[in-house]
Amino acid sequence: MTASPTQGHKATIVVVDDDALITLNMVDQLSDLGYMALEAFSGREALAILEARSDVDVLVTDFSMPGMSGVELAEAALALYPRLNVLLTTGYAELPEGIACTLPRLEKPFREDELRAKIEELLGAVPS
After folding, report:
1. Can you give the pLDDT at residue 94?
2. Less Cβ around it within 10 Å: N or C end of the chain?
3. Residue 40 forms beta bridges with which residues?
């Protein structure tokens, strides 16, 4: 679950956000960067992808989603794959009180180069 792109494998990334425009835009950006990007529009849909595939390297999830927050999704995903890289995207400068979260974060709005740098950091690749 944690192959490095430097080992001849471009990472597989699941992107989940309940806003379809954000999800599809991020999938397009990651695909343009050479990653295999898969879209999900809910936490449940993302978990179904993770349960069906063993080649996912990174989960990029929005914090605020109906039904299952990004933190709840991350906890469920990490229960399946403890070494999975998870990136939380959020429009909040600070997460709401009572949310304990040590996941790497990327604040919205972000640019493609910021997304690339964060993904490369998670994968242990040297940014180009």
Report:
1. 61
2. C
3. 16
**More confident: 112 or 7:** 112
Share of the chain above pLDDT 90, in %: 72
d(CA 121, CA 128): 11
**Mutual angle of helices 43-52 and 70-80, in 10-degree steps:** 10
For residue 102, the model assigns a pLDDT of: 76
The DSSP line for 40-106 is: ESSHHHHHHHHHH-S---EEEEES--SSS-HHHHHHHHHHH-TT-EEEEEES-SSPPTT----S-EE
**CA 51, 69, 81: angle at the middle one, nearest 5?**
30
